[in-house]
Design a protein that fits this description.
Elements lengths: L7 H31 L3 H39 L4
Helix pairs in contact: 1-2
């Protein structure tokens, strides 16, 4: 098995990408829900809108964690004294 250690930059990039992808998928699910509602397929509408809601929660959580990571990384770099 090939293993690779992730740097903090790689980890930050992955969490940012996951947040964007979760938000994009939530938007797609929401649109499927609207189309299902317009087609009077109410069970499908409920399913897609619930998926959209759940994915939005995941995306918000990841975005919040990413912002905390960025703030922690930046404040650590500022306190390190090796900057400008």
């Amino acid at each position: 098995m090939l293993q690779r250690n992730l740097s903090s930059g790689d980890s930050l990039w992955l969490s940012t990408q996951f947040a964007f992808q979760a938000t994009y998928l939530a938007m797609m699910c929401y649109n499927f829900g609207l189309h299902s509602y317009e087609a009077k397929r109410h069970e499908q509408c409920v399913y897609w809108l619930k998926e959209s809601y759940d994915l939005n929660k995941v995306g918000e959580c990841c975005a919040r964690e990413t912002m905390v990571t960025i703030a922690t990384t930046c404040s650590g770099a500022d306190q390190g004294g090796g900057g400008r």
